[in-house]
Amino acid sequence: MMAAGMDPRSSWNRITLADLERSLLAPGAGGFLAAGGGEVLGCVGYRPDGDRTLTLNKLATVPQARRLGVGRALVREVEHVARMGGYGRVLLAVSQFNLDVLPFYDRLGYTVTDEPYSHAHPDSPAPVVLVKEVRAEESAPGHPITPLTDKDAP
């Protein structure tokens, strides 16, 4: 993720393949890739944390894809999964080394909470935790989760 412009102090740079597998392949977990022109532009992961919370994690975009709506579209996909899965909220954590992204999440309706983040890397400072309430909708047979399209991106 250094190539994506991540701060070298970020926990992203200490994540191993095994860490990613535990996070993205856990029961109920998943993720999305954004691609264009044959290149990966961004990624995001999610995992359930209890009955009511879907945790968004591993959001990253390459520098040339920033401010083009890629990150926003990836976050919206996770929010869509949360709504269709019956979760009431999406929770995420921002590294102390990446606080410049807080206005991005604020524009998307996320607010800072004092909840602890149980997935914080033990060698990193405590992250800023944000949460957004989403209207939960149970996915029903015949109404599968519908992926967002390019028309949904800003």
TrEMBL record:
PROSITE patterns cross-referenced by the UniProt entry: GNAT
Occurrences of domain N-acetyltransferase (ranges): 1-135
GO MF terms held by the record: acyltransferase activity, transferring groups other than amino-acyl groups
Renumbered residue ranges of the record's region Disordered: 135-154
Record SUPFAM superfamilies: Acyl-CoA N-acyltransferases (Nat) (SSF55729)
Highest taxon of the lineage: Bacteria
Keyword presence, NADP: no
Keyword terms, alphabetized: Acyltransferase, Transferase
PANTHER family assigned to the protein according to its UniProt record, in alphabetical order: AMINOALKYLPHOSPHONATE N-ACETYLTRANSFERASE-RELATED (PTHR43877:SF2), AMINOALKYLPHOSPHONATE N-ACETYLTRANSFERASE-RELATED-RELATED (PTHR43877)
Name the record gives this protein: GNAT family N-acetyltransferase
Annotated organism of origin: Deinococcus indicus
